[in-house]
Design brief:
heterodimer; A: about 325 residues; alpha/beta; Rossmann fold; Alpha-Beta Plaits; 2 domains; six-stranded mixed β-sheet; four-stranded antiparallel β-sheet; about 35% helix; about 25% strand; disordered C terminus; B: about 290 residues; mainly alpha; 12 helices; globular
C-alpha cells in the first residue's frame, strides 16, 4: 500500500481568489511542518487533503485513499482543525463518545478509546464538564483527543499549539514526538516554529498559495544559497578564530557571542567552512568545544524565504 | 443495460458494508434526535405542534358538549389538520427542524466533525433526514393524538363510540398518515433548500406561495406540491369558503394510493438530489 500523502498538481480557487496553485507533494511518514504566513494556503492544503474542500484541479490521496471513500479514509486519518466550535450542549466526554460511536464501533471499545485519548491529552478531570465552559487550551485538548482517539495512521493538525500555555505546549510536542516515533504521519501547521522545529523531519514552505520549498530542514537551508549560513562555534579564543577565518577570506560576517565564549560566523560555503575549521582545530591554536548551525531551523528558513511581509524573497 | 452489467451492479451492491452503514446511521440518528428534541431551540416547534391542543383543551373545559354538535367538531378538527397543521404547523415546524440539520450546523460551525468522520456523506444525510422525520412525525403525531382525544373527550360515551366503533379510528389513522407524509415531504424539500441556500427561509416562503397558488396551476405543475398529494387523503372534506379557500387545496381527484406513491416518489427524487449536493458540499465557514 502507498504510504505517502500525495498532492498531484493541485490547485484550489475560491471563485477568483487563489487558495493554492499547482502544488505537487509526496510526503513520507514522519513529522512534517507546514510553514507560511496567514492566508498562505496552509489550511487550504489541509482541507483539500481531508475533503473539506474539493480541488479545482489535480488530485489528492492519502495512503492511496481519497476522502470520497470516507469509511476507509477517515478510519485512517484524524484532523484537528482550527475551527474552535463544537456541537452545542455537550460535555467533553459526550463529544468524544459521540465521535467514536459514529465510527460504528461497540460502546465498550469506544469507552476504552475515549478514556485512553483523554489520558493522553491529560483532560480526564474536565471530561464531565460542558465544553462551553472550557478554556481555549482545554478546547484545543479535546479537539486533539477527538482527532487521535480512533488511532489514525495520519494526523493532520492545524495550529495545534494555539491557545496553549507553555506547559501544555511542551506536553503536546512530546505527544507529537511519540506519535511520530510510532510511525504515524503527522502534518502540522504552526506559527510557533521554534517548538515544532525541534521535532519536524520535514518542512513545507508555502506563501501566497505557492509552494516555495519542501524537504528536510537542513537540506532546505543549504539550498538557500543567497543567505550565507550562520554557525555558532564555542571555543576558548573566539576573536582569534574569527580573525583566522576572515584571513583565509572565507567568512562574510562574524559576531561574538554575548558571553564571550563563542562566535557566530557566516559562510557562503558550509562544506568548505567545516573543512577549514577542522584545519584550525588541528593546528591547536583554538580549542573548539562545540559547533552548531545557528540558522538552519524552520524559523530562519521562514524569514529567508518568505520574509516578515509574507512575500517570497 | 445488459444482464451482465446488472449482475455486476448487484454484486457491487452486495459487497457494500451495509451493516456498518446501518450502525452508523442509527447512531447519527440518535445524536440528532437528542439535538432536535432536547434543545431549547426546539421550543417553538413544540409550540407549533401543541397550540391547537391547548385551544381544544380550553374548548373542552369551558364549552358545553352535546352529541348533536359532534359532527361540527369533527369538521373543525379536519379544518385544524388541513388549514393549520398542513399549511402552517407542519410546514414551519419542518422548516425549523430540517433546515437546521445541515445549514444550522454550518452556522454553528460544527458540521466538519461529521464530515471528518468515517461515514459516507449519503449515510450522514439520510440519517439526519431520518432523525428529522422521527422528530417531526413524533411531535406532530402526538399533537394530533392529543387533539383527537381532547375533541371527543367532551362527548363522553358517544365520543368513545365514535372513535372505537365508528369512523373516528379510521379518521385518526388517516390524519396521522397525512401528517407523517407531510413531514416527510416538507422535510425533504427544506433539507435540500438548506443545502442550496445560505438562508432557506425566503425560499421556503416561495414554497408556501407555490403551495397556495398550486390549485389554480395546470395539473402537471400541481404534481410539484406536497399539499396537493395530501388533499386526496383527507377523510373529512373541508369546505373552501372565504379566506379559507386560499388555504384549502382543491386538486384533481386521484386515488389514495396514487397520491401516496406520488408523494413518496417526489421525496425520493429530492433526497437523491440532496445526496448529490452533500457529496460536493465544502466547508467554508467564513462565508456563512
Amino acid at each position: 500500500m502507498n504510504d505517502r500523502i500525495i498532492f498531484d498538481n493541485v490547485s484550489k480557487f475560491y471563485g477568483e481568489v487563489l487558495g493554492v496553485n499547482r502544488v505537487s507533494l509526496s510526503i513520507p511518514p514522519g513529522i512534517t511542518t507546514l510553514v507560511g504566513p496567514n492566508g498562505s494556503g496552509k489550511t487550504t492544503l489541509m482541507n483539500l487533503m481531508t475533503g473539506l474542500v474539493q480541488p479545482s484541479n489535480g488530485t489528492v490521496s492519502v495512503l492511496g485513499l481519497t476522502p470520497s471513500n470516507a469509511t476507509e479514509f477517515f478510519a485512517a486519518v484524524g484532523y484537528c482543525t482550527q475551527f474552535d466550535f463544537f456541537p452545542r450542549g455537550l460535555t467533553g466526554w459526550q463529544f468524544l463518545m459521540d465521535s467514536l460511536m459514529i465510527h460504528g464501533m461497540d460502546e465498550s471499545v469506544a469507552f476504552q478509546l475515549a478514556m485512553e485519548s483523554l489520558a493522553r491529552v491529560q483532560l480526564g478531570d474536565a471530561a464531565g464538564r460542558k465544553i462551553a465552559g472550557y478554556s481555549k487550551g482545554m478546547r484545543q485538548k479535546i479537539r486533539l483527543a477527538q482527532a487521535i482517539a480512533h488511532h489514525p495512521r495520519v494526523l493532520v493538525l492545524d495550529e495545534p499549539l494555539n491557545g496553549l500555555d507553555p506547559m501544555a505546549r511542551a506536553e503536546f510536542i512530546a505527544l507529537f514526538e511519540e506519535l511520530g516515533r510510532q510511525g504515524m504521519h503527522i502534518l502540522i501547521s504552526s506559527h510557533i516554529l521554534d517548538e515544532v522545529d525541534r521535532i519536524s523531519d520535514r518542512v513545507i514552505l508555502i506563501t501566497g498559495g505557492y509552494l516555495i520549498a519542501e524537504g528536510n530542514i537542513h537540506q532546505v537551508r543549504q539550498e538557500v544559497r543567497e543567505k550565507p549560513m550562520q554557525v555558532l562555534i564555542r571555543c576558548d579564543r573566539p576573536e582569534l578564530l574569527a580573525s583566522r577565518m576572515f584571513a583565509i577570506n572565507h567568512c562574510v560576517e562574524a559576531r561574538l557571542h554575548a558571553d564571550g565564549k563563542g562566535v557566530f560566523l557566516r559562510t557562503a560555503d558550509i562544506d568548505e567552512f567545516y573543512s577549514m575549521l577542522n584545519g584550525i582545530a588541528a593546528d591547536g591554536l583554538v580549542k573548539i568545544e562545540a559547533v552548531a548551525p545557528a540558522d538552519d531551523d524552520a524559523n530562519a528558513i521562514y524569514q529567508y524565504l518568505i520574509g516578515s511581509d509574507g512575500s517570497a524573497s | 443495460m445488459t444482464q451482465q452489467s446488472i449482475a455486476d451492479f448487484g454484486k457491487t451492491l452486495a459487497r457494500q458494508p451495509w451493516g456498518l452503514w446501518g450502525r452508523q446511521a442509527s447512531r447519527i440518528t440518535r445524536i440528532e434526535l437528542r439535538r432536535n428534541l432536547l434543545s431549547w431551540k426546539a421550543g417553538w416547534v413544540y409550540f407549533l405542534a401543541f397550540i391547537p391542543a391547548v385551544i381544544i383543551l380550553i374548548h373542552l373545559l369551558f364549552d358545553a358538549h352535546q352529541v348533536s354538535t359532534m359532527s361540527e367538531d369533527t369538521g373543525i378538527l379536519a379544518g385544524i389538520i388541513q388549514l393549520y397543521y398542513i399549511r402552517l404547523g407542519v410546514f414551519f415546524g419542518c422548516l425549523g427542524i430540517f433546515s437546521r440539520l445541515i445549514r444550522g450546523e454550518m452556522i454553528e460551525r460544527s458540521l466538519h466533525f461529521y464530515l471528518l468522520s468515517p461515514v459516507r456523506r449519503e449515510v450522514l444525510l439520510l440519517a439526519k433526514f431520518a432523525a428529522g422525520s422521527i422528530s417531526a412525525i413524533g411531535l406532530f403525531g402526538v399533537a394530533i393524538l392529543a387533539d383527537f382525544a381532547l375533541i371527543y373527550a367532551g362527548f363522553g360515551a358517544a365520543g368513545r363510540d365514535y372513535v372505537f366503533n365508528g369512523p373516528g379510528g379510521g379518521q385518526l389513522g388517516a390524519y396521522l398518515a397525512i401528517v407523517a407524509l407531510g413531514c416527510l415531504g416538507y422535510g425533504a424539500v427544506f433539507l435540500l433548500l438548506s443545502m442550496v441556500y445560505r438562508n432557506p427561509t425566503p425560499a421556503a416562503m416561495l414554497v408556501l406561495g407555490w403551495e397556495t397558488i398550486n390549485p389554480v396551476l395546470p395539473s402537471l405543475l400541481q404534481k410539484l406540491s406536497v399539499a396537493s398529494y395530501l388533499r386526496p387523503l383527507m377523510p373529512v372534506s373541508v369546505k373552501a369558503e372565504g379566506i379559507f379557500a386560499l388555504l384549502t387545496v382543491q386538486t384533481e381527484p386521484v386515488s389514495v394510493w396514487t397520491a401516496s406513491a406520488g408523494l413518496l416518489l417526489l421525496i425520493a427524487v429530492v433526497l437523491v438530489y440532496s445526496c448529490y449536493r452533500i457529496r460536493t458540499l465544502e466547508i467554508r465557514y467564513t462565508t456563512e
